[in-house]
Amino acid sequence: MKARGDPEERALRRARWAITAQIAVVVSLLVAVAGAVAYGMLLSGQHADADRTLARTIQLGPATIPPGCVWLFTPGTHTPAGPVPPGMPLPSLDAAVPSPGDVHTERRSLEGMTYTIRVENRDGVVSQAFFEERYQIQDRSSLVFGLGVAEVLALLAAVLCGRVLACRAIRPLADALRRQRTFVADASHELRAPLTRLHTRAQLLARRASGRDAEDLDHLVRGTRELGEVVEDLLLSAQACGERPSLEPVELGTLAEEAVAAEAVRAGESQVRLAVTRERRPYVVQGVPTALRRVLSALLDNALGHTPPGGSIEVWLGVPDDRHVELRVRDTGVGFPAADADRVFERFARGSDGDGRRFGLGLALVREVVTGHGGTIAAASKPGAGATFTLRLLRADPAGQHA
């Protein structure tokens, strides 16, 4: 059964709605553009029709009754006969056609109604023709209303269709995530039993051994315990559907010493000096012990992998201020260009110095864990001068650690 707070499910829902919204926006824009084109063509056609009607009315003169909604005024008469709409004619417009053959056209509002006005000088006689746009305005209003209804219907249809298409497009991804989670849960469950047996047998051997063998077996017990914790975390993560684990006080100094002790044999075989530098004081942070242990293990593994024989690795802990604990892993290895300081935390990123070097996955996972704890991690290095990784986490109880 899926949890309501599953980040993966929330991400899938967001993706579905994002696709639906994009489809709806595209369809709405297409309908709006088509409506604007239709409105523009109607408006242009109405204006052209009004201009032709007025030109024909002036050409025929007052002897012919003009079409409906048209008035023609000449110096001596007007047509059609009867009451003249207020404001007609406009003597001031005669100045716009001072010479024979001049034509002036404009659109003007008179007494709340819009008119197309054509003023023409024919052989010295100035005529004014007015076309009332009452019905043209009604046609445009009807078109706008129809386009609005079409826009709403198209938006609704786009949302429905977009939702269906989005669900179909996301379904393979949802299936893949579900299979991945099932695989992690099944694999973790199958690994837990043999690891538990291995850990138990290692404990029994450690109790019976003495001297150097006992110390080596203690390291083996800690290693199997850590491996079991990793498997347990994977199983819990799969069962909890990605819910954030609860944080607890963790003594980072103790974890650092345990991580260094776990890598001591490997460091000795590689002829690399490995040490912890810290004050004898608590370095307590809020975190998940198993996750922070993996962070330290990954940082040390990275340092050992890039430090040649005769080099050294130092794990330093300090308290830079009242709110943070700082841990640095400094090595004397091959280093990397300063331009790659951010790229080293990207998954399978390649270096910028042209040697094709890949940084792998470990440091990317380290940053994800540190960020999930509300902390920061930064890298500093130069080619041939080693590298320093600085981890900063919030202290668990700043006030209580002053003692």
Automatic annotation (TrEMBL):
Organism whose genome encodes this protein: Amycolatopsis australiensis
GO molecular function: phosphorelay sensor kinase activity
Name of this chain's protein: histidine kinase
Gene3D superfamilies registered for this protein in UniProt: 1.10.287.130, Histidine kinase-like ATPase, C-terminal domain (3.30.565.10)
GO cellular component: plasma membrane
Catalytic activity of the protein: ATP + protein L-histidine = ADP + protein N-phospho-L-histidine
Keywords for this protein: Kinase, Membrane, Phosphoprotein, Transferase, Transmembrane, Transmembrane helix, Two-component regulatory system
Compartments it resides in: Cell membrane
Start and end residues of each Histidine kinase domain: 186-397
Enzyme Commission number: 2.7.13.3
Stretches that traverse the bilayer: 21-42, 143-166
